[in-house]
Amino acid sequence: MKNNKIKNALIWGGGLRSLKIHTCLNNLSNLNKKYINAKNNKIKTKYIFDTFIKNLNFKINSIFSNKSADLNKIINDCSFFVVAVGAGHGKARYLISKELERENLLPLGIVNKFSIIDETAIIGKGAQIEPGAIIQGHCKIGDYCIVNTNATLDHGSTMGNGCHIMTGASIAGRVEIGDYVSVGTNSTILPDIKIASGAYIGAGSVVTKDVKKNEVVTGNPAKKIKLNTHKFDLSSFKFKN
Hints:
With 241 residues, the protein is of the alpha/beta class. The protein contains three helices and 24 strands. The protein has an eight-stranded mixed sheet with strand order 6-9-12-15-18-21-23-24, covered by helices on one side.
């Protein structure tokens, strides 16, 4: 890790989630320091990187780049990273994060101190857990997951890598969720349900039976409407390792 007095951080993604994360990192008192992986360090969001947009839609005192050719220079100047890619792009968030790990950057956990996490819960690295989220006893959350505002996971539920539980979603006890699953706003998953990898639960849905791999389901009760795709290619980014 670089030996700067102030540790620079890269936020990958230029949407409003990046502004939210930037604001949190400028006010560490709002974060649960157990998860940020940067104790006793001052963190500066020096760079925001996103090749899919031309300009940021907000003003921020960070350097913005949308050029893949800049990536190695940015990585060499940073110690930490957060991938601010939300919505249903969990696979992209996870794969980008793993590449940045290989570049010797450390993930920051953006876990708000106004969330409630039982001491028996296991939270993976790079978590983004927002105000009012509740994670009950003996839950297990994989790496690079987002648990949004007021979402709840009841006792004994498990979640794979790169998942996104959106605002107000309610996951009952002993639910098993695979990798890269998105659970929409205000949806409900009943106890003992299994959600296979890559599935997408539509907003407001009530899931009463298991959901298969890559299925998109919606409604009350939730029914399959199509299959999900997770198209993402890292080859266009010029990582040095």
